[in-house]
From TrEMBL:
Its cofactor is Mo-bis(molybdopterin guanine dinucleotide). PROSITE patterns: 4FE4S_MOW_BIS_MGD, MOLYBDOPTERIN_PROK_2. It comes from the Bacteria. InterPro entries: Asp_de-COase-like_dom_sf, MoPterin_dinucl-bd_dom, Mopterin_OxRdtase, Mopterin_OxRdtase_4Fe-4S_dom, Mopterin_OxRdtase_prok_CS, Prok_molybdopt-oxidoreductase. It comes from Paenibacillus aurantiacus. This is Molybdopterin oxidoreductase family protein. Keywords: 4Fe-4S, Iron, Iron-sulfur, Metal-binding. Residues 8-68 form the 4Fe-4S Mo/W bis-MGD-type domain.
Length: 702
């Protein structure tokens, strides 16, 4: 019967495209005599996704199987690339890195990672930079995703975990504020949690400059001016204060800093806030009363609040709101930073950030350095110091302080603000190595491109937005000569004479070291093992022992600061670094669409997803369209002080008349980050992606 029976390969996996990490089964069926298999995708039950998949998850396998995958290492030759062997590629890397470090010092080489890497790869990348390359320069694209919420959570609560409560608490919340988060398009499988909450009588408030799939569900939509979220949160707090909607016992027993906050709020003027935010005082009052009077409530923020030059303080303002009203640490009451990237949570815990070591340890803390040096079997004084944030690394590349860059799991030319400067910088590098599955916009500039494996081929753990660690097993063999990220790092380390620190046989081997490295840290994974993850539906951190169940709901008794108390802080109303004026009269805000993920390197290579959204666009209000003479569907030039792009106009009342929206998933002439600001938040170094001044005009081809 050989050859007459279909061959069926069932792959239990999870979607790589957002922080829910929905489980799925991909089935590959070879019919007898067929030259290619047929694929089917089924959602698979797990606690977070409850057996749902969105369009991205249903079609994720398409990019993994794409004919555009890089199958061999590529070396630049003129304007193109030639395939070479891994031996040759690794030899080139070893020699070029040693030469450049010999001339310019170790810190002349930088490492740039990504929030979609598995925990194992993220952990190893931090170690690779500090132990193999011995450079202080490492940071990653998660800086643009989570740094504001992470810093705010750490300062307010003493710990940063995306959601302080399990997702199942959402339906218990009687009032929910979704601030700057478009869950319907970015994490679609979470929407039923919110519809169930509404069915249970919850009042839903959405804060967003645009009408979105999420705002359509809202009882109250506050269409805030881009960048004015902190002021709006101040207005909400002021009403709570004026109306006496405070949990005084909670404030007294579990927080610090209320007196200063109270004095600050008392001095604010609600009408002035209404003017700044574009939201009427009546609507601010209505929202505050709904939240303050509800017996339970949750607040969620995402990039709309966080990707601002005051992103850290804007999140702190929303945390003040939660704390003043005592809505945390209880069923149906808490806070959530809705992470975007697939491993946005885990990617930030294991040492990819310039200032951090695994387990959220601090690179400038002597005890933390000593602990990690011991795990890594090096001397503490051999650990490099603190580097700089992602965009600041790009500035150092541009200034040629960094002369070589190794990029893994990221496309910085599209994801960084002020992209023209970033591209100029990358072109100046003496040596650029990019590990990717595809020739991304960044990889096209590389001296060497290293093919890495996809989510169907690469085992590892990822931590979803709840802080739940999930194991993604992978059964497909690597395509072509592609290698796992962790193996690429080990191979380069061997060439640099540091291979003894990187001799791992599997992702699980790395996880075993990660467990020890995280032990006793804020993000403690010590009690989590692959065996447990195979048996259980994910395990929450902190999980200090294998007998621990992990904590789904945080802060029931105390916060993670030494005194057990949360910190309140006065927050100033934001002043934008760049205001609209006669030359640039509109505000640009950026974001995502349902079918695409990050800079689109993967989703643009899924034919089903690409067919739904094959080009970028600018959303503009009919009044703006009339003022600037733009017709629906026409090409529009959008220009800021930093650059210019051409995208198709979409006229809609979903956007404020004073603002335009362009998504972030396309590169080259549609790369919206050619327009965005290089200014960074002073605390967390988040760029202000969400508000800058632009002008628009019909595009006339030259
Ligand atoms: Fe689930 Fe997010 Fe993937 Fe959609 S993109 S299937 S919500 S993990």
């Amino acid at each position: 019967q050989a050859g007459l029976t279909p061959v069926v390969n069932v792959l239990d996996t999870q979607c790589p495209f957002c922080s829910v990490q929905c489980k799925a089964t991909v089935t590959e069926t070879w019919a007898p005599g067929a030259s290619r298999p047929v694929y089917t995708v089924e959602p698979k039950m797990n606690a977070a996704s409850e057996g749902r998949l969105c369009i991205k998850g249903m079609n994720a396998y398409q990019h993994a199987l794409s004919g555009e995958r890089i199958r061999q290492p590529l070396r630049r030759e003129g304007e193109g690339f030639v395939p070479i062997s891994w031996d040759e590629a690794l030899d080139i890397i070893g020699k070029r890195v040693e030469r450049l470090q010999g001339i310019y010092g170790r810190d002349t080489v930088g490492v740039y990672g990504g929030g979609s890497l598995t925990n194992e790869s993220a952990y190893l990348l931090g170690k690779f930079a500090r132990v193999a390359l011995r450079t202080k320069y490492i940071d990653y694209n998660g800086r643009f995703c989570m740094s504001a919420a992470a810093s705010a959570g750490n300062k307010a609560f003493g710990v940063d975990r995306g959601l302080t409560n399990p997702l199942s608490d959402i339906e218990l919340a009687k009032c929910i504020i979704l601030a700057g988060t478009n869950i319907a398009e970015c994490q679609p499988t979470l929407m039923p949690y919110f519809t169930r909450a509404k069915e249970n009588g919850s009042y839903l408030i959405v804060i967003d400059p645009r009408e979105t799939g999420t705002s359509k569900l809202a009882d109250l939509h506050l269409k805030v001016k881009p960048g004015m979220d902190a002021a709006l949160a101040n207005g909400l707090q002021k009403v709570l204060l004026e109306e006496g909607l405070l949990d005084e016992q909670f404030l007294r027993e579990r927080t610090n800093g209320f007196d200063a906050l109270q004095a600050h709020l008392a001095a604010l003027d609600l009408e002035e806030i209404a003017g700044l935010t574009g939201v009427s005082a009546a609507d601010i009052r209505k929202a505050a009363l709904a939240f303050g009077q509800a017996p339970t409530g949750m607040v969620f923020t995402a990039r709309g609040v966080e990707q601002q030059t005051d992103g850290y303080m804007a999140v702190r303002a929303f945390l003040n709101l939660v704390l003043m009203n005592g809505k945390i640490g209880k069923p149906g009451s808490g806070y959530g930073a809705v992470t975007g990237q697939g491993n946005g949570q885990g990617g930030r815990e294991h040492g990819q950030k310039a200032d951090q070591l695994p387990g959220y340890r601090l690179i400038e803390n002597p005890a933390d350095r000593a602990y990690i040096a011991d795990v890594w079997d090096i001397e503490p004084e051999d650990l490099p110091g603190k580097g700089v944030s992602a965009y600041e690394m790009m500035e150092k590349v541009h200034a040629q302080e960094i002369r070589a860059l190794i990029i893994m799991g990221s496309n910085p030319i599209v994801s960084n603000p002020n992209a023209n400067l970033v591209e100029e910088g990358l072109r100046k590098l003496d040596f650029l190595v990019v590990a990717d599955m595809f020739l991304s916009e960044t990889a096209r500039l590389a001296d060497l491109v290293l093919p890495c494996t996809s989510y169907l081929e690469n085992d590892g753990t990822l931590t979803n937005l709840e802080g739940r660690v999930l194991l993604r097993e992978a059964k497909r063999p690597p395509i072509g000569e592609s290698r796992h990220d962790w193996r690429i790092m080990g191979d380069i380390a061997e060439k640099l004479g540091r291979g003894q620190y990187f001799r791992f046989e599997s992702a699980e081997d790395i996880f075993e070291e990660l467990r020890v490295a995280s032990r006793g840290g804020i993000a403690d994974y010590y009690g989590i093992t692959y065996d447990r993850l195979r048996r259980e539906e994910g395990v929450y951190w902190p999980c200090p022992s294998t007998g621990s169940a992990g904590e789904g709901r945080l802060f029931a008794e105390r916060f993670a600061h030494e005194d057990g108390r949360a910190q309140l802080i006065p927050v100033e109303n934001h002043r934008l670094p760049e205001s609209a004026d006669d030359a640039y009269p509109l505000y640009l805000t950026t974001g995502r669409v349902l079918t695409q993920y990050l800079t689109g390197v993967q989703t643009r290579r899924s034919h089903t997803l690409a067919a739904r959204d094959f080009e970028s666009f600018v959303q503009l209000h009919p009044k703006a369209a009339r003022t600037y003479g733009i017709a629906d569907g026409e090409l529009v030039r959008v220009t800021s002080r930093r650059g210019s792009i051409v995208v198709r106009g979409r006229i809609t009342t979903d956007i404020r008349p004073d603002s335009v929206f362009v998504p972030m998933h396309w590169g080259d002439t549609q790369n919206v980050n050619k327009l965005t600001l290089p200014e960074l938040d002073p605390t967390c170094r988040m760029p202000g992606f969400k508000a800058c001044a632009v002008r628009i005009e019909p595009y006339i081809s030259e």
